[in-house]
Amino acid sequence: MAKLVEIRWHGRGGQGAKTASLLLAEVAFKTGMYIQGFPEYGPERMGAPITAYNRISDEPLRVHSNIYEPDYVVVVDETLIKSVPVTAGLKKDGAIIVNTSKTPEEIRKELKYDGRVYTIDARKISEETLGANFPNTPMLAAVVKVSGVISEEVLLNNMEDSFKHKFANKPQVVPKNMEALKRSLQEVK
Amino acid sequence: MKEKMMKITPNVSWKDITPGGVITKSGNAEEFKTGDWRSMKPVWHEDKCKHCMLCWVVCPDNSIIPEDGKIKGFDFDHCKGCGVCTKQCKFGALDFVVEE
Amino acid sequence: MAKRVSLSGNEAVAYAMRQINPDVVAAFPITPSTEVPQYFSQFVANGQVTSEFVAVESEHSAMSACIGASAAGGRVMTATSSCGLALMWEMLYIAASSRLPVVLAVVNRALSGPINIHNDHSDSMGARDSGWIQIYGENAQEAYDNFIQAIRIGEHPDVQLPVMVCYDGFITSHAVENLEMCEDAEVKAFVGERVAPYSLLGENPVAMGPLDLPPHYFEHKRQQAEAMRNAKKVILEVAAEFEKLTGRKYGLFEEYKMEDAEAAMVIINSTAGTAKKVVDKMRAEGKKVGLIKIRSFRPFPAEELVAALKNVKAVAVMDKVDGFTGVAAPLHNEVRSALYGAAEGKIVPGYIYGLGGRDVTVNDIESVYNDLFKAIETGKYEVYNYLGVRE
């Protein structure tokens, strides 16, 4: 039986939700899986709600529609909960991960969802490790931890390579990004 | 390229015509005899001609034939009878008359 | 050796362009163009290609520059989308009728208005009768493969026509997917060097684009039409050679589970993938369904399609464009025209779907197959249908 994991990302233009979905696709790809990472383009304005998607499977992926019944939902900006139906179609045995300083119990009250609820304070982790609010690295770690689509070890190994490549001109930020990843794996709850 | 494709005739078939109307041969204007478009023609009076060659300069069809820096005659296969040469002649060496 | 990579459709096409290393790329670099020229200009800046990149002031100029470069004997390519293709319109015909190979990546997007930049097939379907070969692909892999093959198809001595390589905007162009890439040397060997039968430059320069009056224009058009007919065979020959290189098989169209199919769908581009998933599901339920995905829309494989549809009872023809004929959209028209005299009571409805980026789900596609079975059972059906529009 094919294993297919479908993930929906909610963020705001400029926060890196699309980039995070592409990063997740990239690390899963490196483990030999079939991947799709794609944004749902809207008006493309800074701050406007945006949606991005991932399909990750051990079989070739053919469906080219958006994802309506995701296994996991990742909310990169908690203020979206008030304006966007982030849990729409989310499978009961799936999970939602929210970037917030609140606890899962607190955030659950704001969601219409009975399944698993996880939170991570990506802003705090990002600011403490990277010195600014770049939530996508922590959110990537959180979705890997919660979904288990790839192992934590594979994530860390692959991301170190990716960061070294991406930040070839400023290698000093690589350990900081790695710290952000590791802390996020610990702190998602 | 086949020689027949070089030759665009009024009867060429779609199989033999050049693709996209490509013209493969340079200087082929000579092959089109435009002399029969003429209703007026220039007449040269050699005795009045100073061989200043200005008629040769202005002729748009290259129909005034020079030889050793002098006018030799007219190429009536290609002269369309525009009369520019007769207009510019300051010596009365060129008349413009009705073609008969 | 093939390289396994994850790329977006636009990246994949830009990589193919890098591997081909054309003589000239002329493109208008911003919206409504695509990311393809942007990626390619980076390759130029990095010295990874020796191509001349001409940044022009409009799409009309982009195609004009491509025409000039191709007339000079160069291998030439560009990319565009939506209204950008529309602005090339006049020059599309010049390229095709002058018999000048140019490869154009068309990222399929809606034409305005109302203003819309999302996926449908309005742009390339509008250009379907411009004399260009049109090859369509389902995903990034096919966009990449088709782009490489397009060079050989367009430049073949029996063809000498420009080629559009079409793939879906956003769905394919901006989504990252798995694909296999050839080695640079393999692509280089596969495409070889362009041998132009005529050129503005070189030892035997010619004149191109003359005034063509009634005594000869018709003959030129007749010859151009023959080149398009010749392309069918060449597309298959190039595909066979490409299969030897990569193992990936291509034809004029792809048949998916068509053996013994009673209800079929004819479709173009990315939604074919979604539909294959539906075919698998319905087959598992014992329903005899199949799918044909058109790859070559120009030339249109009419006889081959008739043979492939011989045994089906009902076939839904899917158009991601409304032709506004009031009768049938472009693909529907072609399929019905092909089936003329061979339809024998076949049920051939058309469905217009996905306009302006309207998402198409597995449920939408399944509803079409269900319509077909209902039509087979009752004999009653609508010919002209809209899938996914609010009534």
UniProtKB/TrEMBL annotation, chain A:
Q: Which one Pfam family would you cite for this protein?
A: POR
Q: Please state every residue range assigned to the domain named Pyruvate/ketoisovalerate oxidoreductase catalytic.
A: 13-184
- Is Disulfide bond one of the keywords UniProt gives this record? no
The entry's keywords: Oxidoreductase, Pyruvate
Name the domain of life: Bacteria
Is Cell membrane tagged as a keyword?
no
Tell me one GO molecular function of this protein. oxidoreductase activity, acting on the aldehyde or oxo group of donors, iron-sulfur protein as acceptor
Q: What is the protein name for this chain?
A: Pyruvate synthase
Q: Which organism is it from?
A: Fervidicella metallireducens AeB
TrEMBL record, chain B:
Q: Work out whether the entry's keyword set contains Metal-binding.
A: yes
Instruction: List required co-factors.
Output: [4Fe-4S] cluster
A Pfam cross-reference name: Fer4
User: Which keywords are on file for this protein?
Assistant: 4Fe-4S, Iron, Iron-sulfur, Metal-binding, Repeat
Q: Give the signal sequence positions.
A: none
Where the record annotates domain 4Fe-4S ferredoxin-type, the positions are 40-69, 70-99
Q: Which residues form a coiled coil?
A: none
Source domain of life is Bacteria
GO molecular function, a single term: metal ion binding
Q: Do you know which InterPro entries this protein is assigned to?
A: 4Fe4S_Fe-S-bd, 4Fe4S_Fe_S_CS, PorD_KorD
Q: What is this protein called?
A: Ferredoxin
Automatic annotation (TrEMBL), chain C:
Name the gene behind this protein: porA
Which Gene Ontology molecular-function terms are recorded? Answer: oxidoreductase activity, acting on the aldehyde or oxo group of donors
Quote the CDD domains the UniProt record gives.
Answer: TPP_PYR_PFOR_IOR-alpha_like
Domain Pyruvate:ferredoxin oxidoreductase core span(s) in chain numbering: 261-365
The record's listing under Pfam families reads: PFOR_II, POR_N
Superkingdom of the source species: Bacteria
Species assigned in the record: Fervidicella metallireducens AeB
GO BP, sorted A to Z: carboxylic acid metabolic process; response to oxidative stress
UniProt family annotation: Belongs to the pyruvate:ferredoxin/flavodoxin oxidoreductase family.
Keywords, alphabetical? Oxidoreductase
Does the entry feature the keyword Iron-sulfur, yes or no? no
Report the InterPro entries cross-referenced here: PFOR_II (IPR033412), Pyruvate:ferred/Flavod_OxRd (IPR050722), Pyrv_Fd/Flavodoxin_OxRdtase_N (IPR002880), THDP-binding (IPR029061), Transketo_C/PFOR_II (IPR009014)
Specify the protein name.
Answer: 2-ketoisovalerate ferredoxin oxidoreductase subunit alpha
Domain named Pyruvate flavodoxin/ferredoxin oxidoreductase pyrimidine binding: residues:
16-238
